[in-house]
């Protein structure tokens, strides 16, 4: 129980030190993340179509 209390006290001390991103930074990071996800969707979707087509040819 003492360890939990000590942990929570240390968390309370650390929370004010957090630097949250500004609205502008958050928008920029969100757009970057969505772009990267889009690239992965296109890549893996294309790979799936290609492998599906190869599978149909092999049959």
Concise summary:
With 59 residues, the protein is an all-alpha fold. Helices cover 83% and strands 0% of the residues.
Work out the oligomeric state of the chains in this entry: single chain
End-to-end Cα distance, whole Å, is 64 Å
Question: Gyration radius, to the nearest Å?
Answer: 23 Å
Q: Strand portion, in percent? A: under 5%
Number of helices: 2
Question: What can you see in these coordinates?
Answer:
0% of the residues are buried. The chain has a domain at 23-59. By secondary structure, the chain is mainly alpha-helical. The chain has helices spanning 2-14, 23-58. The chain is elongated and about 65 Å long. The longest helix has 36 residues, at 23-58. The model has no long low-confidence stretch (mean pLDDT 96).
Which helices and strands appear, and what pairs or packs with what?
Elements: H1 2-14, H2 23-58
Keywords:
59 residues; mainly alpha; 83% helix
């Amino acid at each position: 129980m003492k360890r939990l209390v000590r942990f929570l006290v240390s968390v309370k001390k650390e929370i004010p030190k957090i630097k949250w991103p500004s609205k502008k930074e958050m928008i920029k990071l969100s757009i970057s993340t969505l772009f990267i996800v889009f690239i992965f969707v296109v890549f893996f979707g294309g790979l799936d179509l290609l492998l599906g087509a190869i599978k149909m040819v092999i049959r």
